[in-house]
Amino acid sequence: MAEAAGAAEAAPVLRGLPDEIVVCEILARLVPKAVLRCRAVCPAWRRATSTRRFLLAHHGRQPTLPLLCGFNHLGDIDDRSVDITPLDHRAGLTTADQLQSVARVGPVYWFFRVEASCDDLLVLSINCMGLCICNPATRQYAPLLLLYGIQPLGMYLHSPTSEYRLLLNSQHLNAQDGYYVFTLSSQPPRHLGCPHGQAPMKGTGSVLSGSLHWWMGQLIMIFNTTAETFRRENI
Q1: pLDDT of 87 over the 50 cut
Q2: pTM of the model
């Protein structure tokens, strides 16, 4: 059974062509709606279009667009929501094609803010409380229900596992002090603790050489995204 599963996983995306050509030269050129449709063809196509290599190749072919926030006020207050919509201002597009919502969040959500990003994936805060992950290129998003009341400090790719993770600072009164790591899955955040004698960090860290950095007056705080440890450097 294990051998059969391994053979199925190793099966080419499209028989007769190398996966490198299929993924990076064919599938990566599809428009977002076509990418979503091809994911429903078979498990092999879904796996191929869910890898970091594909995401980077596909995102690299997408235009840089501003994000708009649209409010839906129709109906009762419980039905109100916010649309997150890129404005595709390229010439030759109809109005309907220029404004294609990538996410609708609600109810009673009034505004959003980009808290962190990695490989063109966006972490959005809704009303400064709830969080969601959004892929504007493929028009997909998902709420991060386990992270209510937690402040993101950065998003990164954990190279040993190829998982996207968030570094968090808890704002819950009942939570343990310090920082947490959250893998984009259904598992609860993992407690890291707090560097000894260090004031709390605020804001999203700047990425440099695979680590997150925060300027804190007389020193720079550094988070190694591979070992998931902190260190300090004096200025």
Answers
A1: yes
A2: 0.68
